[in-house]
Amino acid sequence: MRNDCLPLVGSGFGRSLSGLRHPIALSCRATMADSAAIRDPGTFDSIPVIDITNANGTRDQKSALAFEIKNACMEVGAFYITGHGIHHETIDSVFSAMKAYFSLPLETKMELYHKRVGNCQGYTPLLDTNIDPSNRGDLLEGFAAGWEELIPEENDETSRNDDRPKAGTNVWPLEPAGFREAYLNYYHAALAVGKTLYHLFALALDLPETYFEDKTKESVHDMRTVRYPPQTGPVDDRMVGLGAHTDFKCFTILWQEPDIQALQVLNSERRWINVTPIPGTLVVNIADQLGRWTNDVFRSPVHRAVNRSGVDRYSTAVFFGMNSDVQVEPIPSCISPDQPPKYEPISAGDYERKRIEAMFRQGTP
Ligand SMILES: O=C(O)CCC(=O)C(=O)O
Ligand SMILES: [Fe+2]
C-alpha cells in the first residue's frame, strides 16, 4: 500500500578548524556551540554567495570553503552557490520542460494527481496544500518525483516496492516529449552537488569528510518543480505562493527562475530578506534535520515564496535527507555546558513521518 500525503516542501579529514584564519577561536570540540553564542546569528540582511569550485580541491581549499559554509549556515542558514558544475543546458531543458508541462490542461495534469498516485509523487494543483497553518493555501502547482535511473534496469522490483514517502516508482506525464529525461538529467546533476555539499557540511562541523556518506546512501532525495502564478492587485498576505515554513530534511538545493523575485528568508528581527535570483547560482538552505544534528548551530531558516512579479515564476527544489533508520541527534561539537542538547534523538524516518502527519492535520484549505 502506498502512502498518500501532501506533496511536501518542503542532511574530512578530522582536522580541527582551529587552524583556519577567522575571527573566532575554534580549538576544541565544544567550539561550534561557543561560536554560535558569540555570533548573534540570524541578524543578516543579505544572503552570502559561495563559490564551490574548489570543493574537491586541496585540503586547504576544502577547509577554507568549509569555513565559509559554516559561517553562512550559522548566520543565515542559506547561501547561493556558484561553481556547482550544472550545465546551463541541463537547467534550460528542465525549465522548458516544466513550462510546457504546466501549460497542459488541468484535466491532463490531474491524471497524475498526487492523492491518486500516492507517495507524495505526481501533480499538485493550485491551492491543494497549505504549508503555513495560519494561511489560506499555497498558490502554486507542482510536480514531484524521486530517484530513478535514466535508463531503468529491467525487473528492478526494489524501488517499486518501497512505500516510503517520495519513494517507489515514479509516475511521468506522457507530454511534453522529453519531460522525464530533462527532469532526471537535472535531478542527477543536483544529486552530485548535494553529495559534495554533504562533504562540505561534515568538514564545516569538524567531522570526517565522509561522515554523512553511509547515513545518506538510501535516502529518498526527492525533487519538485513548481509554477507560481503571479499575484496582482492587493495581495492577501494569507495566500502567497508558498507560506512561511522550514524544510524538514537536511538541506535543499533550489533553482529559481532568473529575474523574478519570489523567495524570501526570515531573519531574527522578523524581516523578510529577498533571495534575489543571481544568474548561474543555485540556492542552498539548511533544513530541520541538519538543524537538529547541529543543535541549531546551523539555522534552518523560515522561508516563503511570494510572486508579485506579474508573470509566472518557476522553481525546482531537490530535498536532501538521511536513511530512514539514522538517528538524528545533536553532535558533540555542537553541545556545551551553556548549550545542552535541545533535541531528543529521533530516527530520520520517524521525524519525517511526524512532519508529514502534522501537515495532514493542518489540512488543505
Ligand atoms: O520556490 C521557492 O522559491 C521555494 C520553494 C521551497 O521553499 C520549497 O519547496 O520548500
Ligand atoms: Fe522550502
UniProtKB/TrEMBL annotation:
<comment type="similarity">
    <text>Belongs to the iron/ascorbate-dependent oxidoreductase family.</text>
</comment>
<dbReference type="InterPro" id="IPR027443">
    <property type="entry name" value="IPNS-like_sf"/>
</dbReference>
<keyword id="KW-0408">Iron</keyword>
<dbReference type="InterPro" id="IPR050231">
    <property type="entry name" value="Iron_ascorbate_oxido_reductase"/>
</dbReference>
<dbReference type="InterPro" id="IPR005123">
    <property type="entry name" value="Oxoglu/Fe-dep_dioxygenase_dom"/>
</dbReference>
<dbReference type="Pfam" id="PF14226">
    <property type="entry name" value="DIOX_N"/>
</dbReference>
<dbReference type="InterPro" id="IPR044861">
    <property type="entry name" value="IPNS-like_FE2OG_OXY"/>
</dbReference>
<feature type="domain" description="Fe2OG dioxygenase">
    <location>
        <begin position="219"/>
        <end position="324"/>
    </location>
</feature>
<dbReference type="GO" id="GO:0046872">
    <property type="term" value="F:metal ion binding"/>
</dbReference>
<protein>
    <recommendedName>
        <fullName>Fe2OG dioxygenase domain-containing protein</fullName>
    </recommendedName>
</protein>
<dbReference type="GO" id="GO:0016491">
    <property type="term" value="F:oxidoreductase activity"/>
</dbReference>
<dbReference type="Pfam" id="PF03171">
    <property type="entry name" value="2OG-FeII_Oxy"/>
</dbReference>
<keyword id="KW-0479">Metal-binding</keyword>
<dbReference type="InterPro" id="IPR026992">
    <property type="entry name" value="DIOX_N"/>
</dbReference>
<keyword id="KW-0560">Oxidoreductase</keyword>
